[in-house]
Amino acid sequence: MTDKRVYNFSAGPSQLPMPVLEAARDQMLNYNGSGQSVMEMSHRSAVYQQIFDETKADLKELLNIPDNYKILLLHGGATQQFGTVALNLLHKGRADYIVTGQFSGKAAQEASKFGDVHIAYSGKEGGFKHIPSQDELDIRDDIDYVHLCNNNTIYGTEWNYVPDTKGAPLVVDMSSDILSRPVDVSKYGVIYAGAQKNMGIAGLGVIIIREDLITPHKENIQVLSEYDTMVKSDSMYNTPPAYAIYVLGLMLKWLKSMGGLEEMQKRSVAKAKLLYDYLDNQDFYIPHAEPAARSNMNVTFTTPNKDLDAKFVKESIEAGMVNLKGHRSVGGIRASIYNAMPIEGVEYLVDFMKKFAEENK
Ligand SMILES: *Cc1c(COP(=O)(O)O)cnc(C)c1O
User: For a substitution probing ligand 1, which of 84, 103, 177, 330 has the most ligand atoms within 8 Å of its CB?
Assistant: First the structure.
């Protein structure tokens, strides 16, 4: 039990910035003089419509989304899009998937229910420590799209280039690094992300889709998975995840007040560098990802053995840091340092790591 806020290194749902939590608290009982909380209001009301419209406009501004892209704010987080993308974008019935971790593997598996899925690269045998170079990708001709996952939350690897897809649209799962750096949206056909890593709370999927990829109404797709209907109804065919959209809006306003994505990139790079510089200059911890593939969002490493991993996690909790335990498929330690993690939290973690290494050598 503690009455203080902890440093939360969770991979998701993750820590939110204090100003976002405070705004949600202050507006909880009476949003903007409406006499209601956002949780209670009709999604068809003028007061909610304004929240919704501003959220979309702020996302467009922050990510510099071109006019020929639509923004959807839908239920089901990122996973719902694994199948939805395939259902909407498969016309020839062929898609290539680059598998650099568990989520891209799941996306490929889901899409294979609906079409001919070819694995253009798999990092599985190498323990998902690597991001492939262009030469390592086996991309077919005549496909509907190529799919990749931009940041591999579980393994701590991140793409730092946009591969050539031989003209096929590129679909990218950006769940764990969206809004951490500027991206050139025009290089992608579809960007999708669950909100709870870097931009809000769980249950909301943000989808940014190039207009020409929204194909006309298909009778054989369940309606909530149909981009055409969702675009035409502006994500409100049914009740949208209204409160999660509101929190996204608060996050976007906070990001704007902080200086936007260039500033977030500077901060992310500085935070990650603190950890990686330390890891590269000691011989107790073993970093997981290859140096060239390292993520600025999720930093993964192990101690010399499983017992010490467990001891590290236990003592880190006692020191006021939570959720540093690595994903069950990798073990070890994972520090997720998304937008909301202040640099002081990372400095505190590095000091703890140094002390723990000294004590347990
Ligand atoms: C967390 C995560 C997902 C799954 O998100 P849900 O919102 O739980 O469906 C998918 N892809 C990546 C890269 C993630 O980090």
Answer: 103
Bridge partners, residue 271, by sequence: none
Q: Is the CB of 155 under 6 A from ligand 1?
A: no
79 ligand 1 Cβ < 6 A: yes
User: 79 alpha carbon to ligand 1 midpoint, in Å?
Assistant: 6
CA 18 – ligand 1 centroid, Å: 23
DSSP 35: S
Which atom of ligand 1 is found nearest the CA of 202? 7
Residues 6+ apart with CB under 8 A from 85: 107, 111, 145, 147, 171, 190, 192
Side-chain-side CA neighbours of residue 265 (13 Å): 10
> What rounded mean pLDDT belongs to the chain?
97
Q: Which residues of 115-149 are buried (b: 16+ CB within 10 A; e: fewer)?
A: bebbebbbbeeeebbbbbeeeebebeeebbbbbbb
**In the predicted structure, residue 84 carries a pLDDT above the cut 80:** yes
User: Which atom, in ligand 1's list, is nearest to the CA of 176?
Assistant: 15
The structure tokens listed for 16 are 């939110």
All structural domains of the chain: 21-256 (3.40.640.10), 260-360 (3.90.1150.10)
How far apart are alpha carbons 44 and 49 in whole angstroms? 7
Beta-bridged to residue 72, according to DSSP, are: 207
With a 6 A CB cut-off, is 102 part of the ligand 1 pocket?
A: no
pLDDT-derived band at 177 (thresholds 50, 70, 90) equals very high
Q: Which of 15, 9, 338 is nearest to 158 (CA)?
A: 338
Residue to mutate, 14, 73, 79, 192, ligand 1, most ligand atoms under 8 Å from C-beta: 79
Asked whether 214 and 228 are in contact (CB, 8 A), the reply is yes
Q: Half-sphere exposure (CA, 13 Å, Cβ side) for 125?
A: 2
Q: Say if ligand 1 is within 6 A of residue 149 CB.
A: yes
pLDDT reported for residue 2? 76
Q: Whose C-alpha lies nearest to ligand 1, atom 14?
A: 175
Quote the crossing angle between the two packed helices 79-89 and 102-111, to the nearest 10°: 40
What pLDDT is attached to residue 318?
96
